[in-house]
Amino acid sequence: MTRRNAYITQSQLVNFAGSEISTVEIANELKAMGYEVYVVTTISSKTFRVMLAKKGIKVLHVLEKNIIQQAVEDAPPDLVWVQHNIFPIELSIEAVKNKAKIFFYHMSGSTPQELPFFRHIEEKIASLIVVNSAKGIDIFYERRWFNKSTKNLFNLKNSAPDIFFDEKKNLKSRPKKLLVVSNHIPDELREAGLLLLKNNDIEVFDHIGDGGNVKANNPVTPGILKKYDVVITIGKTVQYCMAMGIPVYCYDHYGGPGYLVEGNLESSAQRNFSGRGAHKSDAAGIARELLRGYSATRLFTQSTFRKVFAEEHRLSKKIRTIIESEDQTKTSARDVVDDLVLMDGYTELVSRRYANNHYLRQKNHTVEQELDALQQTNNRLSLKLNEITSSRAYKTVINIQKMKKKLGL
User: Fold this and answer.
1) Same domain flag for 59 and 174
2) pLDDT tens digits, residue range 76-100?
3) Which of 30, 68, 222, 238 could link 167 by a cystine bridge, Cβ 3.0 to 4.6 Å?
């Protein structure tokens, strides 16, 4: 069987956030399809490198140019998946020369690093330009990043891996265990959980994300989600829950439509389940909705929600459709070399920025740890000093010294 090589580019692999998780999932899908997979990024954590290595996926770093050059010579690219406009010249030139299929993926129409700054290059060399929601396509049209004559736009729908479809949650008649998955949980949502717990309406209100009480060092898994009756979240976790048949209350810092049901499902999907364009509620209103809306949502979730709608968000099918699409790229390397050099300049600039910021964060963390250690030492010494000065022996010595002074001794 002929070896096929795939390269995915990504701004950084340090924290478990949306684009990082998507990178891992897409890499796993390509690996499952028989590709040798390389992830090219600016910086990475040991956690990501070890996790990907276990699947036989290699991590390369943009500023290690000799290593990338050697990799593309040993494993010429057949497929390149570009994210965050990261496209080093060592990879881009070989990809065009090798007539590889090249896909540009934009996960947002508003986040700066996701925007198609090099759309003129994309339109020349992309097999497909991929976005993760219908709203993303609309934004690109409205802001004239692309025009409607750009026919090679594809909606990935922020789809979920098969492992979530392989699990099914058996739902209770009443919601007892609730989970929030968010890195920016709004105050009203946190207060709603406390209110439900105080009134004994629920047993558990857990939170995964920044400031959460449940620590998850890895992406959210089916095993984690299966423990809960309702998941309150936005974005990619919605698709995970859809695949498993778990009711979703779509709400976060932008607000949200609440429980996902037939009346709001399509409009929410258009916005990638971001919560945008919906309403903000107060704590009492959210608590009330979580209890009262559960029964109807439970029935809908295990029927249309899981069996029909969720199937449209199966990642393996979407990736296969993208890869099997007709290659529309007819450009030679000679025609686009200046464009690729321009993109490489941006890639190196961004890479150095990420590397410097990462170094400063690590340095700051080290200094904070040293200061904390000094403070703990100071606290221990202060306690010891206080213990000594409060002791009977110390007071006796002081009294003896006073008496000697009085006696002139």
Assistant:
1) no
2) 999 999 999 999 999 999 999 999 9
3) 222
